[in-house]
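Hi support team,

I'm filing this because I wasn't sure whether my run with pyridoxal-5'-phosphate finished correctly. The job status page said complete, but I'd like someone to confirm that the output block is well-formed before I use it downstream. Pasting the exact inputs I used:
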Amino acid sequence: MIDLSSCRSQFPALNVKVGKYNAAYLEGAGGTQFPQRVIDAMVGYIHQGNANIHGHYLTSQLTDQMLLDARAAMATLLGASSPDEIAFGANMTTMNFALSRALARDLQPGDEVIITDMDHEANRSPWVELQEKGLVVKSIPVRTNDCTLDYDWLQKEINSRTKIIAVGYASNAVGTVNDVELVIKLAKQVGAITVIDAVHYAAHGAIDVQALDCDFLLCSPYKFFGAHIGVLYGKKDAFEALRTYKVRPQSTTPPSKFETGTQNLEGIAGSIQAVEFIASLGNLSDDHSLRERVLAGYDALERYERPLFERMVESLKEIPGVTIYGLPWDGKRTTTVAFTIDGVHASEVGKRLGEVGVFVMVGDFYATRLIEVLDLVEEGGVIRAGLAPYNTMEEVERLLEGVREIAQR
Ligand SMILES: Cc1ncc(COP(=O)(O)O)c(C=O)c1O
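And here is everything the job wrote out:
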């Protein structure tokens, strides 16, 4: 079980105050706070002596080693079979643009790409814009009653012209965890490449890319206690076949062939400790492998956050005028909830909660299509509250109290 005070003591940002209120960061879905060990690793990298890679001197060799360690840590986090399947980059969006363009080099006009109405635009726009090359882009509708994907539609629409399916593991707006196993199975039946956006999911659930057997998966360590960088997993064969756009001196082999320009090395150094932080949550001894500790860490995180989430959702449901979007808390969703308050613009709710130190984001969070489908554009989108292992029941109660007051007016 997570020891809350020891967990919280690792996050300096929890000392921020708004007047008499301690900051309640219920905005992990937008980016989690940094534990001290990640900050130390980032600063430590710079202290130690910044260097470009592949030089014949000490700090360059240390940088090369750090990169190998970071690939290994991220491979372990994602369950990849080799560190060479892990590439780093600026952020998920930038990496997905590069990935989609590289994949599109092998597509013909009339080939089809399937995306979803639920996803963040980072996993929609790069594909939608490929229509200029004559590709046909189709989008899996969302069943608005429970904010799940319409898998029947997918079964009907998928066909031999489908070359790529790009789908989110979990929705950053409403927290739905998608049936990616089914999507990948259907994709395989027609030989389509799968691209999974795990940016939101990675903060909440363990990922096993080998069990999923997806071709590519992307995530962003700043959503799970790390720095502002992006990560691409590419399955060996798919990554080798990928015809990346690259500069001439760049290596032709994965993962370097995907990594253009100079990397955010201090951010990458921090990501090693982000994985270690997750692993530490399960309290397993170092006799266990890092993968075992990561799995125990996610398990502890889920066991800690779930009761808080139940309290949050059940209480929100009881407040007159509050509407919640998506499934109830039955385990097939992350600990992220989206709601509206009748007659109050979402930005007004965000502002009022911010005044009592409750930090929530409002709007569409770039899940622009989903908010259109839910017909919530006029209302300013939704209010999103999500949990991280440093959140407390007091913070949840403060959110609820604030929402009750706003709903009463
Ligand atoms: C589900 C999801 N996908 C993609 C992104 C984009 O990630 P990045 O900021 O690393 O480009 C986000 C960011 O909020 C997200 O929540």
